[in-house]
Amino acid sequence: MNRKELNPDSSPQAAFGARLRSSREDRGWKQEDLAHRMGYSSTHISSVETGRKLPTLRFSRRADLALGTGDAFEREWREMRHGVLLEGFPEYVGYEGRAVEIRLYEIGIIHGLLQTPEYARALADSAVRRGVVTPEQAAERISYLTERQNMLARPRPPAMLVVMDESCIRRQVGGHAVMCAQLDRLLQFAELPNTVLQIAPFEIGERRPFNLPLTVLTLSDLSVIAYAESQIRGHLERETTSVLPMLAGYHQLQAEALSQAASVAMIKEVRKATL
Fold first, then answer.
1. Domain residue ranges in the chain
2. In angstroms, rounded to a whole number, what is the distance separating the alpha carbons of residues 128 and 254?
3. Which of 70, 43, 56 is nearest to 16 (CA)?
4. How, if at all, do strands 214-218 and 224-229 pair?
5. Residue 13 and residue 18: Cα distance in Å, rounded?
6. What are the b/e assignments for 84-105, b being 16+ CB within 10 Å?
7. Strands ordered across the beta sheet of 224-229
8. Which of 21, 107, 135, 210 has a CA between 20 and 30 Å from the CA of residue 120?
């Protein structure tokens, strides 16, 4: 029987696979035995063990349950996934999923929470071509984004206040078809009862209070958290004395931005020009 030797140091997914194989063999189980206990095929188990297939959160949790490893595989999966994310971002996402109000400001591209899968894929593919991430890491980014979007589709969704720089809707990403579908997604978002969508037009010029994207979260206890990113890391700010000026700046931005009705009209105009 051919047995592929594993090098756990070659990649995070190889380390995950080696640990899975070791845990299985320590119990005297064949791949078929673990597959039966986890509800997967033996081929799937083999692919994860040899690093050919990336594990998912569901897979990791079932491995922990079947092998009695607590949450060891889930934690390893999260560490592996967070390796393709900016420093500080995983911690922010934990708060994002519990927020009762989310205020977003974005420059240049549509914010991830509002992206269509095709738009997100175009951005990820571009990162792969530039050598920023591997194809596997790009796939993980998209999967992670989908999970974040799904977390917000709960019975009592958070209020979402979004201001986008005009550049977000005028910069084409992925070609005409992808961009049209993305603009349609924004129009649908604006119709939701828990959302407000505004465009900050180029005309506001120097009155724009922020030069970088910003997120301000309000939690159920009414505490407020701000999150901002540079090119290489994210920063989560919890101190009230630092967050309140950002919130005040956001209020100024909303006052300078177009109304939702005018913003929707601009998006429709840009969509017509995109055809």
1. 12-82, 89-114+151-274
2. 35
3. 56
4. antiparallel
5. 9
6. bbeeebbebbebbeebebbbbb
7. 195-200, 159-165, 101-106, 214-218, 224-229, 234-237
8. 210
Q: What is the pLDDT of residues 128-175, one digit of tens each?
A: 998 877 887 788 788 888 888 988 888 889 999 999 999 999 999 999
Q: What is the pLDDT of residue 1?
A: 46
CATH of region 89-114+151-274: 3.30.870.10
Sequence-separated (6 or more) residues with CB below 8 Å from residue 145: 112, 115, 120
- Verdict on whether the full-model pTM lies above 0.85: no
The per-residue pLDDT for range 62-121, each reduced to its tens digit, is 999 999 998 888 877 876 665 556 666 777 888 888 899 999 999 999 999 999 999 999
Tell me which of 49-58, 118-127, 181-190 is least confident. 49-58
Residue 66 in contact with residue 38, Cβ under 8 Å?
Answer: yes
Structure tokens belonging to residue 58:
């569901």
Q: Which residues pair with 165 in a beta bridge?
A: 200
Lowest-confidence segment of 51-60, 161-170, 172-181, 248-257 by average pLDDT: 51-60
Give me 218's structure tokens.
């309000």
CATH fold of 12-82 reads 434 Repressor (Amino-terminal Domain) (1.10.260)
